[in-house]
Design a protein that fits this description.
By secondary structure, the protein is an alpha/beta fold. It is built from 16 helices and 10 strands. The strands form 3 sheets. The protein has a 6-stranded mixed beta sheet with strand order 3-10-9-4-8-5, sandwiched between helices. A two-stranded antiparallel ribbon has the order 1-2. About 35% of the residues are buried. Keywords: Hydrolase.
C-alpha cells in the first residue's frame, strides 16, 4: 500500500481522490475479463502504478510477475487469472459501498492519549481493502502535522509479591496451531515487520499465511508501538499451510481452518532488538531491559477485551534475528503471564536451550516462591547470569534459582 504519513486519526479511501476515475477506467474492464494472461496482468498493474509514479519505476515493480505466474500449475493459474483477479477488481471498484464510509480509522497515539482504540472489518470489507492493495491503488491521506502525544503507563510490580506462578505447558507444534489460545506474534515495533518488503521470519510468515493481517499494517503501522503498547487482532483466518523458515519458507497449499480459527486472537508484542554483536547482546541482562520486556508482555496479555482464563501460546520471543536469549525470555514471559493470571503454552520449535523450561517451574513450585520472589532473584543475580544463560540447558539457571534471597553468592 503506497501512502504518505502525516498526522491524522483517519485516512480516506481512494474514491475521494481526483485520480479515482483513472483507477476505475483501468480496473472496470478487468471485472468481466475471464481470459487474462500473465503479461496482461502485468500491464494492468503497471498502468495503475503509472498514475502515481514514473513509468520506468512502474515497469520495474512487476517485470518478474509473468514468469512467476507461468510457474504455477495450470489449474491454479487459470483460477487466479480467470476468477480471483476479476473478482478482486470488482471489489476494488466497489470499495466505498463495501466499506460503507469514505474514511478508515487509524490506530494512532491520540494527543493526550491513553485510551484503547479498535478498528473492525468484516471479512468482505477486508477482502475489498486487500484487493485495492493487490492492484496497488493508494489510500488518500489528508494534510496534517506530525505531532504525537505520548502518555506514560505505570506497571504495578506490587502484584508480583501476591501472585503464584501460572502453569507452563511445553508444546512441539506451532503457535498458529494452538486454536482457542491467545497466539503471540513476535512483532516488529512497526506492525507486520517486513511482510510487504523483505524478511520471512515468525511475524512475516504469519502475515503471509493469514493475509487479512496485512490490514493491520494499513491501520496500525503508521506509528511504531511504544514500550507501553501492544495490539491484538481477532478473527484473522489462515488460508495456506507452509514449510520452512526464512530463506527456506514455502507455501504448501490451501488449508481450511475457518471454523477453528474464528475465535483466535493474535497478540502483537514487539521485543527489544539486540543484534548479533556480543557486546550489544549482553545489554539484554540490564535490569531496565528486563523490566521493559516483562512490562511489554504483561500489557499484551492484559489488553481490554481479551478473553479471561485463556492461555498464551508463545515461544522464543525476540530470539531470532533480534538476538534475544531464549532462556531469559521464556522466564520473563512466564512472569508476565503469572501476574496476568494466564497459563503459558511454550512452543520451542526444537530449540534445545529451552527444552527444560519445566524444570525451572518445578524448582519454583518446590521452593514455594511467588512471582515476586522469582523476579527479585532475576534482578539480583542477572549480572552474574549473563554468560550462564547461554548454556545448552537450564542447569545454571536452576542452580541460581535455588539460592535464597539472603544474599548468598552464586
Amino acid at each position: 500500500m503506497n501512502t504518505r504519513v502525516p498526522y491524522s486519526e483517519y485516512m480516506y479511501l481512494p474514491t475521494v481522490s481526483h485520480q479515482w476515475s483513472t483507477y476505475e477506467d483501468i480496473l472496470q474492464p478487468v471485472c468481466s475479463q475471464r481470459d487474462i494472461t500473465p503479461d496482461q496482468l502485468r500491464e494492468i498493474l503497471q498502468s495503475v502504478a503509472e498514475v502515481y509514479t514514473r513509468k520506468d519505476r512502474a515497469t520495474h515493480f512487476y517485470k518478474e510477475l509473468p514468469r512467476m505466474l507461468w510457474k504455477l500449475p495450470v489449474e491454479e493459474r487459470s483460477y487466479f487469472l480467470g476468477v480471483a483477479v476479476p473478482e478482486m477488481a470488482k471489489r476494488a471498484t466497489e470499495i466505498e459501498s463495501i466499506v460503507g464510509a469514505k474514511t478508515i480509522i487509524l490506530l494512532r497515539k491520540r494527543r493526550g492519549g491513553g485510551e484503547t482504540r479498535t478498528v473492525f472489518f468484516t471479512p468482505y470489507q477486508a477482502s475489498a481493502l486487500l484487493s485495492l492493495a493487490f492492484f496497488g491503488v493508494p489510500m488518500y491521506w489528508p494534510d496534517g502535522d506530525d505531532g504525537i502525544g505520548r502518555p506514560f503507563v505505570r506497571f504495578n510490580f506490587a502484584h508480583f509479591f501476591h501472585d503464584r506462578h501460572s502453569q507452563i505447558h511445553a508444546d512441539t507444534d506451532r503457535i498458529e496451531d494452538a486454536s482457542g489460545l491467545l497466539q503471540a506474534d513476535f512483532a516488529n515495533c512497526r506492525v507486520g515487520g517486513g511482510a510487504l518488503s523483505s524478511g520471512c521470519v515468525q511475524e512475516e510468515i504469519r502475515f503471509m499465511i493469514c493475509p487479512e493481517l496485512i490490514l493491520s499494517i494499513l491501520v496500525g503501522a503508521v506509528d511504531p508501538l511504544a514500550d507501553y503498547e501492544s495490539m491484538y487482532i481477532h478473527g484473522a483466518i489462515q488460508f495456506t499451510d507452509y514449510t520452512g523458515y526464512a530463506s527456506s519458507f514455502s507455501c504448501s497449499g490451501y488449508v481450511d481452518k475457518v471454523a477453528a480459527q474464528q475465535s483466535d486472537c493474535l497478540i502483537v508484542m514487539d521485543a527489544l532488538h539486540f543484534d548479533q554483536d556480543l557486546v550489544n547482546q549482553s545489554t539484554q541482562y540490564d535490569p531496565k531491559h528486563i523490566l521493559r520486556e516483562v512490562n511489554k508482555c504483561h500489557i499484551a496479555v492484559t489488553a481490554p477485551g481479551l478473553p479471561e482464563g485463556v492461555a498464551l501460546a508463545t515461544g522464543n520471543w525476540g530470539c531470532g534475528v533480534f538476538g534475544g536469549d531464549p532462556q531469559l525470555k521464556s522466564i520473563l514471559q512466564w512472569l508476565a503471564c503469572s501476574v496476568a493470571g494466564r497459563d503459558m503454552n511454550y512452543f520451542p520449535y526444537g530449540d534445545s536451550r529451552v527444552a527444560e523450561l519445566g524444570r525451572v517451574a518445578l524448582v519454583a513450585e518446590q521452593e514455594g516462591w511467588t512471582v515476586g520472589d522469582l523476579a527479585a532473584k532475576i534482578l539480583l543475580y542477572v549480572a552474574n547470569w549473563a554468560n550462564k544463560f547461554q548454556d545448552s540447558d537450564f542447569q545454571h539457571v536452576c542452580s541460581a534459582l535455588t539460592v535464597r534471597l539472603s544474599g548468598e553468592s552464586l
